[in-house]
Amino acid sequence: MAAILNRYPLTFINSINSRGNGLWIDPETDTTTIRPKGGFGGIGGQYAKPVALANVRAFRQRLRADIGIIGTGGVTTGRDAYELILCGANLVSLGSVLATEGVGAFSRLTTELKAEMAKKGYSRVDEFRGQLNTL
Q1: What is the domain range of residue 86?
Q2: Alpha-carbon distance 89 to 56, whole Å?
Q3: Domains in the chain: how many in total?
Q4: Tens digit of each residue's pLDDT (9 = 90 or more) over 2-39
Q5: Residue 90 pLDDT > 80, yes or no?
Q6: CATH code for position 19
């Protein structure tokens, strides 16, 4: 996919939004909790985070450096945002947490991200973006 995307004048890609075709049943009401398409839809939130991290890292390794990556999927804490940036994300998108907490989530996550950065000795995201250690 990266080889194809590298052929075009892109500014950003979004990776990922949700995992496809999931179904979740509410045990209290025996109804689907995913409303569109008769209950079939994307599974997001914390379930998507491991896939989001892997895809951001894989795309960062393969895309041209001038193509930015929006890391999306499973961001509920500042640490989650930190990890997506560590894997190479230029921006981080909020979905589920924004729906549950509202716009106050931005302030909370920013504070948590700054605390995580301070704990690691960073003052700017450029200092750790794409710097995931591998064994």
Answers
A1: 2-122
A2: 6
A3: 1
A4: 999 999 999 999 998 777 777 767 789 888 766 666 66
A5: yes
A6: 3.20.20.70
